[in-house]
């Protein structure tokens, strides 16, 4: 596999951007407890689907690590040092986002950018794993998270203040490890299965990737059934959490089901190959995913608080805001592409991590 970008994978990343923006804006702009309307149902359904964005982003990071192993290892922009440097810069962007969004985050918050940064820092270790070891490690990572959450009595549902609460054992490290927004345990599991699937896809083993996706979904569904049927008998044990389906904290069933869906999506996109135009709106959004991730959070989460419009709109108006925002982001990305996205956050990420010298560096997909 060469280092050229896959437009289909970029489009998949752009799809994750769409899911992320519509979910966030739906939550941040819509008035809670407002009157029901014919658009309330679709907005709620879209919000539910938006939960797939973060699993897809993290699984794609694992796929990118596998893709990186197929490039020339002697190139300076594909070395372990370059990967760690890229991860540290991305983590720094996460810290910057914390500081720019005080109504949502604290300086110690551990969000998806921090997780992606840590994933890249751990990349040199992950790249040493075989696909089978990576797959076997993924459920162990999730079970370890379950044990830690049970041991430290982490709630079954975590509101935002708890996700930012540094009074947990370990303080800021505890947030990063097991109880923040996107803690390493269990969210690293998505990157591990993405890496395994990416390794197989790079070797042309498409059927193995499809099998992995099916197995993850089946195991996640089984865990959910066991949890629902045996819930009472499992009370007082950490295994009660295995069958829960929750995002905050991410449960065992949630991780396996969504990891399977993400692997399936990546496999299908990889099979499509570079068939989409580079000017396709989803491809352009995928090329600017980091930029829009940070910009939309600062503008709408923090901006709505400052303007006094946080959760003040009807469902219909919120849907209009979502549509307008996506059109504007896609349009600006189209214009940005004319200057090769110069000075976008993606450009700064490459510049600060020392890989700007190559247009299609080996780290382009991670």
Describe the structure.
By secondary structure, the chain is mainly alpha-helical. The chain contains 16 helices and no strands. It has helices spanning about 5-30, 40-50, 55-70, 80-100, 110-120, 125, 130-150, 160-165, 170-180, 185-200, 205-230, 250-270, 280-285, 290-305, 315-335, 345-350. Helix 1 (about 5-30) packs across helix 13.
Secondary structure: elements and pairs:
Elements: H1 7-29, H2 40-49, H3 53-68, H4 80-100, H5 112-121, H6 123-126, H7 131-151, H8 160-163, H9 172-179, H10 184-202, H11 206-229, H12 252-272, H13 281-287, H14 289-307, H15 315-337, H16 345-352
The pLDDT mean sits at 88
**Oligomeric state of the chains present here:** single chain
**Global morphology:** globular
Largest sheet: none
Cα Rg? 20 Å
Number of strands: 0
Q: Which class of secondary structure composition applies to the elements? A: mainly alpha
Note the gap between the termini.
15 Å
Strand content: under 5%
Helix percentage range: 55-70%
Low-confidence stretches: none
Individual helix count: 16
Order of helices and strands: HHHHHHHHHHHHHHHH
